[in-house]
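Deliverable D4.2, example record:
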Amino acid sequence: MEKFKLEVAEAIAKALEKDRNEIIDEIEKPKDKKMGDFAYPCFKLSKEFKKSPALIAEEIKEKIVASENIEKVEVVSGYLNFFIKNQNIVESIMCEIIEKKENYLESVEGAGKNVCIDYSAPNIAKPFHIGHLRSTVIGKAIYNIYKKLGYNVIGINYLGDFGTQFGLVIEGYKRWGTEYNLEKDPIKSLVDIYVRTNEAAKEDETIKENARANFKALENGEAEVTEMWKKFRALSLKEYERIYKILGVTFDSYNGEAYYNDKMEEIVNILREKNVMVKSEGAMVVELKGHELPCMILKSNGSTTYTTRDLAAALDRKRVYDFDKSIYVTSYEQILHFTQMFKVAKHIVGEEYAKRMVHVPFGMVLGKGGKKISTRGGINVTLEDILNEAITKSKEILEEKGKTFENIDEISRMIGVGAIIFNDLKNNRIKDEIFNLEDMLKFEGETGPYVQYMYVRTKSILEKSKVNEEEYKSNNLIFKLLKEKEEVNLIKELSRVKEIIKQAANEYEPSLITRYVIDIASLFSKYYNEHQIIIEDRELMKVRLALVYATNMIIKECLEILGIKCPDKM
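Output generated by the structure prediction step:
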């Protein structure tokens, strides 16, 4: 639809005697299809022309000359509504999709530009619980969106693998390590050791002292404690990798907090040299305009802070990746932290790079009724438990429907995991997510299984047609045969996919793609229910199959961007 949008902008620009580039970004897509294909609001012109928006719209309309593609222009409440000839849209869009096929969504927009995405970031020696799901899933979707636009994307898992808690874990391991089987169940063992040591420390001050000494030794790189820490980290990562594999998530870097342990002195020195640190109650801070709380760089005991590490990471990423964007995907609880860190970052990476740093916040995961998910019978609910439950229930649903696929376990995994990811990405990320497994596994409504099922249906139609794919992927098809209302509506929606992906990148909002693919599935369902596709009229059948193929391809591409796999059968 981009070429039609350009033509509309050109027509308006000519009527107003303005540059087309001043107009194009103002053009909107009406929410109601009855209001046309494009709309131009005239409200901003009132001040310039000293007339009402409605009158300005009427005057512009009078100056617009009919063209090959613009069928008519209407004025509604200060808007100019443009209607593009349906047949022109159908032929233009379908020709492009069939010509480019699986390369239809490929883009070079981000060629030569690096985007760092910091996401997931679980804490070593702790369970990978459902709270980490959102960062992991949203981060991966944003990663895929930028990848699709041609950027070189670097996925970073900034592990929580350093901190005073490791002093306690090390102390507990020294005392009671032989009582636990770390190899068999590392995360549970490490959590039990931490809890036990923490409780014991309340009664025995020497445990606290030893824990502080252990952490100091770890900071200094002493061999014995460093080896223990490396063991804890490796065992934890092995556990996390199993979950990442289920989710289909990989990373390009696992540089966590510990990686920057020897890189923070430079940060402190830079801030000292720039004379932006001041002493406050024994600590060293950077005061920030617009914030009551200053940004702490050094604690009163001389140790660094979480912010100091983030600044060291920012400088390292600038040097290593020369990023065009550096994106941080964390909960909205860290908004203040990143606001402060970005303000201080201008002193470390420079103002230009600091402007390229973006915090992408998201809401909490809540259970049915809006309650926070934390325990089940007193035991922490791990993400792995929930993923396995979703896979098991998906298999049960398929079996209840009488499905007996050879690869039913693989299909159940795609449906169960896909349902969880889809539900997480369905609404605006800043909203709290309601986690109700029963609802998200439904095969109807706004769910992952429903969209997957529509993909399976398109694939099944193409197979049942017995038409060689070269025939419905041919450049010689007569697309003017596609003129039914449901066909036109579906094609118009398919034409928006590139625009939606770009918007999702600009707003760091995967839900735009999720909502879009729900609309595609719904429009295809209406089309399928209203019109036969496998028919005697060979030429009409081929163009309808081409539309089914286009729908199939775009649903699959969108789901893959979201991190969801498409089963061949359901």
